[in-house]
Specification:
It comes from hydrothermal vent metagenome. This protein is mostly helical. The chain is built from six helices and no strands.
């Protein structure tokens, strides 16, 4: 509210504190390190789960809380019985990388 009513200006650190930015970096090298960390995390996730999450985020905008919970539960249930989930669980117990996991390439 305050930002809207006062048209306040804020820097990167303040935008992070306010929740507008998930990360801040001091320089390009720091930004590239954050990017690599995120790429590694995302590429280690099941592609169908990522796609399902993106779809869910599009579906829940503006929906009542009960509907959001229902849609999230359906999405979770669908993911848990998927072949990707079975592969993820098997790879965990077999102490190996899941077949769908992609190792991120270093940018030059």
């Amino acid at each position: 509210r305050r930002l809207m009513l006062t048209a306040a200006r804020f820097d990167g650190a303040q935008s992070h504190e306010l929740g507008f930015a998930d990360f801040i970096a001091d320089d390009v090298a720091g930004l590239e390190a954050i990017e690599m960390q995120l790429r590694k995390q995302i590429l280690g996730c099941a592609p169908g789960a990522i796609a399902g999450t993106k779809e869910l985020l599009g579906q829940i905008t503006g929906k009542p809380r009960e509907e959001v919970i229902r849609l999230a539960a359906e999405n979770f249930a669908d993911r848990m019985v998927s072949d990707e989930s079975k592969e993820g669980i098997a790879s965990f117990f077999e102490k190996r990388r899941p077949k769908w996991a992609v190792k991120p390439e270093r940018r030059s």
